Amino acid sequence: MSSPEAAVWLKSKDVMKAFLESFGGTSIIKERAYTVIAEFVPVTLDLNDVDTCTQIEKDNNLPSLSILSTKWIKPVYKRSQTQRTAHLIIALNTPESANQFLRDGAYIKGKKIWARKLLQEPKRCLKCQRVGSDHLAIECKLEHDICGSCGDKHRTNTCAISDPDLFYCVNC
Predict the structure, then answer these.
(1) Which domains are seen in the chain, by residue range?
(2) Fewer CB near the terminus (10 Å): N or C of the chain?
(3) What is the pLDDT, as a whole number, of residue 1?
């Protein structure tokens, strides 16, 4: 069961259905997603419309059900009233579909859109400011906050320094 053919067999709909029936309960099979960021997408795109993904697939010659999900990076309620474009996270079900988006771009609402890989950002503790740390602020053992802008002992969002020349990297 460690061959490419076995992987294809396991991913077939009938086999997945049989596995789910055998495991029972609330078992689900989560498909792997290949995520891209589509940049400068018209905000007139309605993500609540069930036909939106289907239309994007048709417009870009993608196989049916290639798009697993879509999500705006910035919440809609935080947009300015004059905003015309926004960035969109698109999860695709195959690396081929994702590569097509990356290589050729896509047409969304009649506009040529370019995409890039969605790269995982390193974990950072917002209390001690360590990048790549194994903890988050809630688990941080440091007694006081370290400002991510000036390095003093206060939270970053309360920093009174506004001159960028006085900012520095706390980790350096």
Answers:
(1) 34-117 (3.30.70.330), 121-172 (no CATH)
(2) C
(3) 59
The pTM (predicted TM-score) of the whole model is 0.66
- Dump the DSSP string for 12-77: SHHHHHHHHHHH-TT---PPP-EEEEEEEEETT--TTSTTHHHHHHHHTTPPTT-EEEEEESS-GG
- In tens, the pLDDT along 126-146 reads 888 888 878 888 898 989 999
CB 90 within 8 A of CB 38: yes
Is residue 91 within 8 Å of residue 70, measured between CB atoms?
yes
Residues 6 or more apart whose CB falls under 8 angstroms from that of 167 comprise 149, 150, 161
Query: What is the amino acid identity at position 166?
Result: L
Contact 152, 166 (CB under 8 A): no
Helix (H) and strand (E) counts in the chain: 4, 5
Mind listing the pLDDT tens digit for each residue in 84-135? Answer: 999 999 999 999 999 999 999 999 999 999 999 998 888 888 888 888 878 8
Check: CB of residue 45 under 8 Å from CB of residue 89: no
